[in-house]
Design brief:
By secondary structure, the chain is of the alpha+beta class. The chain is built from two helices and nine strands. The protein has two domains: about 30 residues; about 90 residues, Immunoglobulin-like (Sandwich). The radius of gyration is 18 Å and the shape is elongated. It binds copper (II) ion. Copper (II) ion (CU) binds next to loops.
Length: about 130
């Protein structure tokens, strides 16, 4: 019985943070519109055939928020960049050299507070 409870807790906690993959290919982020949960991470992977890119948060070079969360440069194939999204909200991003060519994306981070408190009540309920 105790083993079952411990396993359940591990499964619940393990399910809370997920990673999502985005491929940087040509002049595109694939997918370019991604919805994730708060606490999740995103891994961008540079395709072997694409040119020099950046992954820069903001809507463009006139955005005062530019680069405040991340501003990563890619120079070689297969390179990866990981960012954990700790706060809810929309996070637009773009590639500095290819912004004019429409190389943009957005990460929509949803709050998972309700789900989390439900989860913790479930866990506490197991020990009553
Ligand atoms: Cu680019």
């Amino acid at each position: 019985m105790r083993m079952t409870i411990v396993l359940s807790i591990l499964l619940v906690v393990g399910a809370q943070a997920a990673n999502h993959d985005i491929l940087v290919q040509g002049l595109s982020f694939i997918p370019d519109d991604l919805t994730i949960e708060m606490g999740d991470s995103v891994t961008w992977t540079h395709d072997a055939t694409s040119a020099f890119h950046t992954i820069t948060n903001g809507t463009g070079t006139s955005d005062p928020e530019i680069g405040t969360l991340f501003d990563e440069s890619f120079s070689g194939s297969g390179q990866t960049f990981v960012h954990v999204f700790a706060d809810p909200g929309d996070v637009p991003y773009f590639c500095r050299p290819h912004l004019g060519l429409g190389m943009t994306g957005i990460i929509r981070v949803t709050a998972n507070v309700g789900e989390e408190s439900g989860t913790w009540s479930d866990i506490k309920g197991l020990w009553r």
